[in-house]
From TrEMBL, chain A:
Its main location: cytoplasm. It comes from the Eukaryota. This is Proteasome subunit beta. It comes from Eruca vesicaria subsp. sativa. Belongs to the peptidase T1B family. It is found in: Cytoplasm; Nucleus. Keywords: Cytoplasm, Nucleus, Proteasome. GO terms for cellular component: cytoplasm; nucleus; proteasome core complex, beta-subunit complex. Non-catalytic component of the proteasome.
UniProtKB/TrEMBL annotation, chain B:
This is Proteasome subunit beta. It is found in: Cytoplasm; Nucleus. It comes from Eruca vesicaria subsp. sativa (Garden rocket). The keyword Chloroplast does not apply. Coiled coil: none annotated. Keywords: Cytoplasm, Hydrolase, Nucleus, Protease, Proteasome, Threonine protease, Zymogen. InterPro entries: Ntn_hydrolases_N, Pept_T1A_subB, Proteasome_bsu_CS, Proteasome_sua/b, Proteasome_suB-type. GO terms for biological process: proteolysis.
């Protein structure tokens, strides 16, 4: 149910924005999500930050949520739009449960639903400003896919959003292989998250890793990663070149 | 220098909400500006929604007022239909509904705080865009930029009511010292199971910060206090 305050938005012919409702820019945003398929299912990592422009304003935002029994949704981008998407999915899952027929929505179906929603909003020039990662396991099959705010949608063995596209994906292309163990998977994700921590200005050092297997979804407690600063060259970088940086 | 007296009324503002062991304390400054002119130097930015839920308003004065008015109206009906006081969460969600669905037109950041029998004292921050974030403490408005570091250091869990209120007053006062868009008096509202208490702290009740001087009536008082002139004999 939407309630829009009636407003006279000016002469509709002259004012380009008068009759169109469109999200022009995001306000509170989440940064990268990184996810991989592994032996028992899917692993996904995200930090808990909500940035407000350049300010790291919120440090306890959960950007990964379980959807139904079989899926996990991670989101980067505008948090209010992510919260709205969770409401849509709540309704979807509720209706699915009400059928009471023993069937439940799998990750493929949820991904497809989200793709339709995102693409249709894009067509109306009023996008949900998110890049979504959908992972899940149903009937032994692992699934990992992504949808962007313009409706581009695909599946892969490993995905990353935002800065992760540039920093995490090369690592994953190099080091991912089929049938990673849980420990190997977590280590790989942590490697990516550490690089993002060093190099993404909007990353914070408080992250969660979520795991989906046939048994269900678990999101870890929040934790911090150690970082390394003891390179000799870091200690006194301008020693040989006074005045430089 | 253009005072821009036709600029929309905006509450530069510092607003704060803090939970403590038993309830919440909301705080705000009292400056409403139109461009460079202070249109109201004693505004009340902490607005009542129900007996047990209040909201701190920042950003556009008009937008925050109209959103509060709608939500107060909805909550009034909701309370009648429910037969008991509305919860803080419901109040926050109603604000979210308006803030999110009108995100292109509204420019207001709000902090909802209150007490209900199910969850006790709760604070919800609702920044631009309509995100809802439940927090143990929240700050907003232009003055909040100066308080992130302060709260990181000064906030502790399970404070007493007195500690919490002192923290809020100190924080608003520090923000006023550095934010040109915040000023005037510090207002606080304490909400707990026993009810609601409003407090008012004019400038002279606050401690002085760096480079601030004790207010005087006149220079003459200072000169005279330096000792009477030697008597002309």
């Amino acid at each position: 149910m939407t309630f829009t305050i009636p407003i006279d938005n000016g002469d509709a012919l002259k004012n380009a924005e008068a009759d169109s409702q469109r999200t022009l820019y995001p306000y509170v945003t989440g940064t990268s999500i990184v996810a991989i398929k592994y032996k028992d299912g899917v692993l996904m990592a995200s930090d808990m930050g909500g940035s407000y422009g350049s300010t790291l304003r919120y440090k306890n935002i959960e950007r990964m949520k379980a959807i139904g029994k079989h899926s996990l949704l991670g989101a980067s981008g505008e948090i209010s739009d992510f919260q709205e998407i969770l409401r849509y999915l709540d309704e979807l899952v509720l209706n699915d449960n009400m059928w009471d027929d023993g069937n439940s929505l799998g990750p493929k179906e949820v991904h497809n639903y989200l793709t339709r929603v995102m693409y249709n909003r894009r067509n109306k020039f009023n996008p949900l400003w998110n890049t979504l990662v959908l992972g899940g396991v149903k009937n032994g099959e692992s699934y990992l896919g992504m949808v962007s705010m313009i409706g581009v949608s695909f599946e892969d063995n490993h995905v990353a959003t935002g800065f992760g596209n540039h920093l995490a994906r090369p690592i994953l292309r190099d080091e991912w292989h089929a049938d990673l163990s849980f420990e190997e998977g977590v280590k790989l994700l942590e490697k990516c998250m550490r690089v993002l921590l060093y190099r993404d200005r909007s990353a914070i050092n408080k992250l969660q890793i979520a795991k989906i297997t046939e048994e269900g979804v678990t999101v870890s407690q929040p934790y911090s990663l150690k970082t390394f600063w003891e390179f000799k060259a870091f200690n006194n970088p301008t020693a040989g070149a006074e005045g430089s940086w | 220098m253009d005072l821009n007296l036709d600029a929309p009324h905006s509450m530069g503002t510092t607003i704060i909400g803090v939970t403590y062991n038993g309830g919440v304390v909301l705080g705000a400054d009292s400056r409403t500006s139109t461009g460079m002119y202070v249109a109201n130097r004693a505004s009340d930015k902490i607005t009542q929604l129900t007996d047990n839920v209040y909201v701190c308003r920042s950003g556009s004065a008009a937008d925050s007022q109209v959103v509060s008015d709608y939500v107060r109206y909805f909550l009034h009906q909701h309370t009648i239909q429910l037969g008991q006081p509305a919860t803080v969460k419901v109040s926050a969600n109603l604000i979210r509904m308006l803030a999110y669905n009108n995100k292109n037109m509204l420019q207001t950041g709000l902090i909802v705080g209150g007490w209900d029998k199910y969850e006790g004292g709760k604070i919800y921050g609702i920044p631009l865009g309509g995100t809802v974030v439940e927090q143990p403490f929240a700050s907003g408005g232009s003055g909040s930029s100066y308080l992130y570091g302060f709260f990181d250091q000064a906030w502790k869990e399970n404070m007493t009511k007195e500690e919490a209120e002192q923290l809020v007053v100190k924080a608003v006062s520090l923000a006023i010292a550095r934010d040109g868009a915040s000023g005037g008096v510090v207002r606080t509202v304490i909400i707990n199971s026993e009810g609601v208490t409003r407090n008012f702290y004019p400038g002279d009740k606050l401690q002085l910060w760096h480079e601030e001087l004790e207010p005087q009536n006149s220079l003459l008082d200072i000169l005279n206090a330096a000792g009477p002139e030697p008597m002309a004999m």
